[in-house]
């Protein structure tokens, strides 16, 4: 029993020892995991602290220091620095002044637990560091933050502040020294600032008393009061200006008040004394009225334009000279409109480029070289002297003097010069001027070379009889030399113009004329027309030959067409008799042959008709009448319905109510439509579709014929309307030689209409006809 108890006790103890071991093992593993987590957390916090923009330097109670690597790089510290004494002796890596001040702040913090903040700079000046010191328990902590960028910004802001302060001081001094009253109102429109001129104007002691008493520069209240402009400027956000009277220094003055809203709030204002300006304007107005009254009494026309180029004054002679109504001038027309009205009245020179001429006259406003002067020669013989004087204010003064009488008096003096200039302007002709006594006065080189006269002979101013005697041997008919004296006499005595033609012995031909001149002389001209005569004769001969050939061709075609009709009628008659069974019953194949004969006869008959139309179209006249276009088109469609059905073609006719009526030749319009339909049916294969569409508007009627046949190439479409120049027949089509489209074009254009064709290979064709209502 004892031994069992001992064994049990030993077992219990062993179990307790085993349980304790297990618990110890579990606890050890848990502590190991906690230690590992603590290490990880420490490393994480260390990394964050190392990456933080603020680095901490810890000073232990015994003077030992802990310096992060990043902070050591900022301060350029040696790795061997481990105490505050070593750090102080090394100079902190800062400027001497900042290092000493920081050392004193650290000592004060360690002794008195005083917190401080200071900005220091490294010795090379590359960094600015903000240092915040505090004591926590027995340790002193210095937080270093790199504020280099912030310090640069602060330095710039300080410089800007200095400049703004200087500018504000200068602006304040300028406002204070300004000779005109200046003020500023706050958001409630109360006076918040005035300058010395404002204080003097209201006769106050100083600016403070003005703002305290609320002294206004302008008397009154309500809409015309001193704050009305400021209120309007504040509400609208736009500067306001107005003119109001004020009493300054015991005298009544006119002030122009300006109220300007400021972006920062409030309204600034200033006043300009315009009393003298108003008086000057009044004097100028009285002077202008007196000047205009004087200008109205002048005989010359005077007009004045302002700097905006609008008319501001014109006198009565100007209105009479240019037929200007007072009502139209009262609207102050612009300079360009006045010139245009003068042109409408025929009172400006005739120029080819009137807009360019007008632009040049517009330059008078900007002239800097004084007055411009021109002479205008108007239709009807009127001469005007025009003086354009730019005005100092940017305006223009124009003076128009009628000098027609002076020009007419001077014309007698310069007639000879004008005649001489007019004579020699035309150098392609032989020119000679003969006086009333028959002597040669002027001549050109062409005149001398034509008759082979010596210069010495002409220099003696020979009489016309001597000239006729010298030129007689050079004429094809020497008797014609007597014509020259007769021409001169006719032009100088009878004062009539005569002309004719003369042939020279060498085969040349000349056209001559004798023209009376204003001074009583006669101008004899001779122009070589030899080349034109030869060309004219050649063209005349060629035209006669062509007309004869055309007549022969037309007669031949017409005769052949009539001759072909006789056998064609016989063939048609016999074929119809065979088809009707007069020669006995025919087999199905024979009937088909007879049908083919009839189709060919029909096409040949159409071709003969087309040829006849082509030969007679030029001479035929249209028998116009009021025609229902829809009825005519339907009749043409009925004529082609059987052919379309026989060729198994879908034939669609669309006649709109807008087709209406036209004034035309009923037969020719129907033939034109039939030609178009016949062309479309002939170009469409079995199973195809032909469309006839008719519509119109109030001015024109339109006919459209389209098919989905083989179409045409671009070259074929370009020659579609040429006579006998149609494209070749496409295999499988039953189209004639192609006279239908040219005939349709001829009939349509005879009615004043148009025809066009659009076609593409494989897509079919579309022909559009437009006919006028009248």
UniProtKB/TrEMBL annotation:
<dbReference type="InterPro" id="IPR000014">
    <property type="entry name" value="PAS"/>
</dbReference>
<dbReference type="InterPro" id="IPR050736">
    <property type="entry name" value="Sensor_HK_Regulatory"/>
</dbReference>
<protein>
    <recommendedName>
        <fullName>histidine kinase</fullName>
        <ecNumber>2.7.13.3</ecNumber>
    </recommendedName>
</protein>
<dbReference type="Pfam" id="PF00512">
    <property type="entry name" value="HisKA"/>
</dbReference>
<keyword id="KW-0902">Two-component regulatory system</keyword>
<dbReference type="InterPro" id="IPR036890">
    <property type="entry name" value="HATPase_C_sf"/>
</dbReference>
<dbReference type="InterPro" id="IPR003594">
    <property type="entry name" value="HATPase_dom"/>
</dbReference>
<dbReference type="Pfam" id="PF12860">
    <property type="entry name" value="PAS_7"/>
</dbReference>
<feature type="domain" description="Histidine kinase">
    <location>
        <begin position="559"/>
        <end position="774"/>
    </location>
</feature>
<dbReference type="GO" id="GO:0000155">
    <property type="term" value="F:phosphorelay sensor kinase activity"/>
</dbReference>
<keyword id="KW-0418">Kinase</keyword>
<dbReference type="InterPro" id="IPR036097">
    <property type="entry name" value="HisK_dim/P_sf"/>
</dbReference>
<dbReference type="Pfam" id="PF02518">
    <property type="entry name" value="HATPase_c"/>
</dbReference>
<dbReference type="InterPro" id="IPR004358">
    <property type="entry name" value="Sig_transdc_His_kin-like_C"/>
</dbReference>
<keyword id="KW-0808">Transferase</keyword>
<dbReference type="InterPro" id="IPR035965">
    <property type="entry name" value="PAS-like_dom_sf"/>
</dbReference>
<keyword id="KW-0597">Phosphoprotein</keyword>
<dbReference type="InterPro" id="IPR005467">
    <property type="entry name" value="His_kinase_dom"/>
</dbReference>
<dbReference type="InterPro" id="IPR003661">
    <property type="entry name" value="HisK_dim/P_dom"/>
</dbReference>
């Amino acid at each position: 029993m004892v031994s069992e108890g001992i064994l049990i006790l030993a077992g219990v103890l062993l179990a307790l020892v085993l349980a304790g071991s297990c618990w110890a093992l579990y606890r050890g593993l848990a502590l190991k995991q906690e230690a590992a987590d603590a290490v990880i957390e420490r490393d994480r916090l260390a990394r964050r602290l190392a990456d933080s923009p603020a680095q901490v330097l810890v000073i232990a109670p015994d003077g030992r220091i802990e310096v992060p690597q990043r902070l050591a790089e900022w301060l350029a510290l040696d790795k061997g620095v481990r105490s505050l004494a070593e750090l102080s002796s090394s100079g902190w890596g800062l400027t001497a002044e900042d290092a000493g001040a920081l050392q004193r702040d650290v000592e004060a913090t360690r002794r008195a637990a005083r917190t401080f903040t200071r900005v220091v700079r490294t010795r090379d000046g590359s960094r600015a560091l903000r240092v915040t010191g505090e004591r926590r328990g027995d340790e002193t902590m210095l937080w270093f933050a790199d504020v280099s960028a912030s310090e640069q910004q602060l330095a710039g802001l300080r410089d800007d502040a200095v400049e703004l302060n200087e500018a504000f001081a200068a602006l304040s001094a300028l406002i204070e020294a300004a000779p005109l009253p200046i003020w500023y109102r706050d958001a409630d429109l109360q006076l918040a600032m005035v300058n010395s001129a404002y204080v003097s104007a209201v006769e106050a002691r100083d600016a403070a008393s003005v703002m305290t008493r609320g002294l206004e520069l302008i008397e009154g209240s309500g809409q015309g009061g001193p704050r009305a402009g400021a209120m309007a400027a504040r509400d609208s956000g736009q500067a306001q200006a107005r003119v109001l009277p004020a009493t300054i220094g015991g005298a009544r003055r006119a002030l122009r008040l300006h109220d300007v809203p400021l972006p920062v709030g409030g309204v600034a204002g200033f006043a300009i004394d315009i009393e003298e300006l108003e008086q000057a304007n009044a004097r100028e107005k009285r002077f202008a009225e007196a000047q205009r009254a004087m200008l109205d009494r002048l005989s010359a026309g005077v007009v004045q334009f302002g700097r905006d180029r609008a008319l501001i004054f014109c006198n009565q002679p100007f209105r009479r000279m240019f037929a200007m109504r007072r009502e139209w001038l009262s609207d102050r027309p612009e300079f360009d409109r006045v010139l245009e009205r003068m042109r409408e009245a025929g009172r400006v020179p005739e120029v080819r480029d009137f807009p360019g001429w007008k632009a040049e006259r517009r330059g008078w406003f900007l002239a800097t070289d004084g007055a411009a002067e021109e002479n205008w020669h108007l239709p009807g013989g009127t001469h005007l002297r025009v003086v354009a004087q730019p005005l100092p204010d940017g305006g223009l003064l124009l003076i128009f003097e009628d000098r027609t009488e002076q020009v007419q008096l001077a014309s007698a003096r310069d007639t000879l010069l004008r005649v001489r200039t007019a004579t020699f302007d035309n150098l392609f002709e032989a020119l000679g001027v003969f006086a009333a006594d028959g002597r040669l006065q002027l001549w050109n080189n062409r005149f001398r070379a034509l008759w082979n006269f010596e210069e010495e002979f002409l220099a003696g101013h020979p009489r016309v009889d001597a000239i006729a005697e010298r030129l007689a041997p050079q004429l094809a008919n020497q008797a014609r030399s007597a014509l020259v004296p007769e021409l001169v006499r006719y032009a100088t005595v009878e004062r009539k113009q005569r002309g004719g033609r003369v042939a020279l012995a060498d085969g040349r031909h000349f056209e001559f004329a004798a023209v009376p001149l204003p001074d009583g002389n006669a101008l004899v001209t001779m122009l070589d027309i030899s080349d034109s005569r030869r060309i004219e004769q050649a063209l005349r001969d060629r035209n006669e030959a062509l007309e004869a050939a055309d007549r022969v061709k037309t007669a031949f075609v017409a005769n052949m067409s009539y001759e072909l009709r006789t056998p064609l009628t016989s063939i048609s008659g016999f074929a119809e008799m065979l088809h009707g069974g007069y020669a006995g019953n025919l087999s199905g194949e024979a009937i088909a042959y007879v049908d083919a004969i009839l189709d060919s006869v029909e096409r040949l008959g159409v071709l003969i008709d087309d040829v006849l139309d082509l030969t007679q179209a030029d001479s035929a006249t249209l028998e116009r009448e009021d025609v229902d276009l829809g009825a005519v088109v339907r009749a043409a469609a009925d004529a082609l319905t059987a052919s379309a059905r026989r060729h198994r073609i879908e034939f669609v006719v669309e006649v709109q109510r807008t087709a209406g009526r036209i004034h035309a030749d009923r037969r020719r319009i129907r033939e034109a439509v039939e030609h178009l339909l016949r062309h479309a049916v002939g170009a469409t294969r079995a199973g195809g579709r032909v469309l006839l569409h008719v519509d119109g508007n109030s001015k024109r009627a339109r006919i459209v014929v389209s098919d989905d046949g083989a179409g045409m190439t671009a070259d074929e479409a370009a020659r579609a309307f040429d006579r006998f120049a149609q494209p070749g027949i496409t295999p499988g089509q039953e189209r004639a030689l192609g006279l239908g489209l040219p005939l349709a074009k001829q009939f349509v254009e005879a009615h004043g209409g148009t025809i066009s064709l659009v076609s593409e290979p494989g897509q079919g064709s579309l022909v559009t006809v437009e006919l006028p209502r009248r």
